[in-house]
Write a structure and sequence with these properties.
Layout lengths: L1 H8 L3 H13 L5 H13 L3 H14 L12 H16 L3 H13 L9
Length: 113
């Protein structure tokens, strides 16, 4: 996962995509690998694919909990990514819901990622 992150940070999207594809073919269906797939799809402009990966990620690692809570930076990034994808897909109602969800838990916690 670190290698994928470093490749993306340095603009090597194709290399990161290859690594991510290799992980999936090896059977890695973890939350981290799914998030990496969502980010790569977003960077490549494949917004529907990115939302599909985020939907799968929500089933693997749900964000919602009961009561008052603060999101981690990673959780906020997931919500922001969904918001941007829905905006790009011109799904106004879903994008509005995503924005409200993103803003509802505006502060991050001190635990980090």
């Amino acid at each position: 996962m670190l290698s994928i992150y470093v490749q993306l940070q340095n603009g090597y999207v194709e290399r990161a995509s290859l690594l991510c594809d290799a992980l999936r073919r090896l059977g890695d269906n973890s939350a981290d690998a799914t998030l990496a797939s969502a980010v790569i799809a977003f960077i490549n402009g494949h917004f529907r694919d990115s939302v599909a990966h985020l939907d799968r990620l929500d089933r693997i690692d749900p964000l919602e909990r009961f009561g008052n809570y603060r999101l981690t930076d990673r959780q906020r990034m997931r919500r922001y990514l969904r918001l941007r994808c829905l905006y790009e897909l011109e799904e106004k109602a879903r994008a509005q819901d995503a924005l409200e969800s993103y803003l509802r838990h505006g502060e991050t916690n001190d635990e980090g990622l």
